Amino acid sequence: MHTATTIADIRTLLATERSHGRPIGFVPTMGALHAGHAALIERSVAECAATVVSVFLNPLQFGAGEDLERYPAAPEADRALCRDLGVNHLFVPTTAEMYPRPLATAVRVEALESVLCGASRRGHFAGVCTVVAKLLNIVQPDALYLGEKDYQQLVILRRMARDLSIPVAVHGCPTVREPDGLALSSRNAYLSPEERAKAVTLSRALFEAADAVRADACDADDVVRRVTGQVAVDFDRIDYVAVVDPDTLQPVRGEVIQARLCAAAYLGSTRLIDNVALDATARLS
Ligand code: PAF
Question: How far apart are CA 55 and CA 141, in angstroms?
Fold first, then answer.
């Protein structure tokens, strides 16, 4: 496994891969890799001749008062995991390498960025899109692997690639969960044992809603009300619970047929997000 810290080095390494006709898969990360990242990497390794993983804690996507300063870091464990999974190239740039001067450019997917997480995290998705556009220009992968856990991010980046004609296939990969259902996240490390015990309430409420939609006709507002009530029992604050169109992220009204149920809520100062597909089509067909 090669490790590159500069844009020039990773470009040189990948030019060689391309000259041998080896399709490149890319998994962008902010480090503190867990089994969710491992699943993305494994898929890239299985599908592409060469896999690139980037580890870059992107300051652009953190707002004032968010957790940039305390975001978990585990560089040695990250490197070992990537090596063990068969990653060919690890790209670990510094902030100075990625942003040598104040940026005069931002990439925004305006139609999708101000709802759900974007409503309370102003500027977050512009930060995500800008760094991922930059990474895609550097790596020029054939395939990009992203987790469904960050569902809004996945929808936005897919749209960005399409709108900007970036020649990459965007693959959304299923959320990896703890045995009790909690979605894996680097931020789970912040939870105290008591908070960790309560955290399962979020995925449990979402799964119950998905079961209910599969079994019976359910009104979207009722789903939101029921999930909000369940999550409120254990969580300290709810940011949002929403039933949205899977592509436009706009709220669904009336009976739920196919939609995405998304939620964000706080345990202490830790913000957790999760989402599930709602699908009644099997019952209706
Ligand atoms: O999902 C993440 O870890 C980040 O938002 C990403 C895609 C690596 C961009 O910094």
Answer: 16
Q: Is the CB of 143 under 6 A from ligand 1?
A: no
User: By the 8 A CB rule, do 117 and 10 touch?
Assistant: no
248-276 average pLDDT score:
98
- Nearest atom in ligand 1 to the alpha carbon of residue 30 is 3
Please compute Rg for the chain using Cα positions: 19
37 is catalytic: yes
Mean of pLDDT values over 64-69? 95
- The half-sphere exposure of 245 on its side-chain side, counting CA atoms within 13 A, is 8
Residue in 37, 89, 124, 171 annotated catalytic: 37
Q: Which residues contact 189 (CB under 8 A, 6 or more apart)?
A: 32, 72
Whether 28 lines ligand 1, by a CB cut-off of 6 Å, is: yes
What is the strand order of the sheet 50-55 is part of? 2-4, 89-91, 50-55, 24-29, 143-147, 169-173
- Say if residues 17 and 88 touch (Cβ distance below 8 Å): yes
Distance 230 CA to ligand 1 centre (A): 29
- Report pLDDT digits (tens) over 94-139: 999 999 999 999 999 999 999 999 999 999 999 999 999 999 999 9
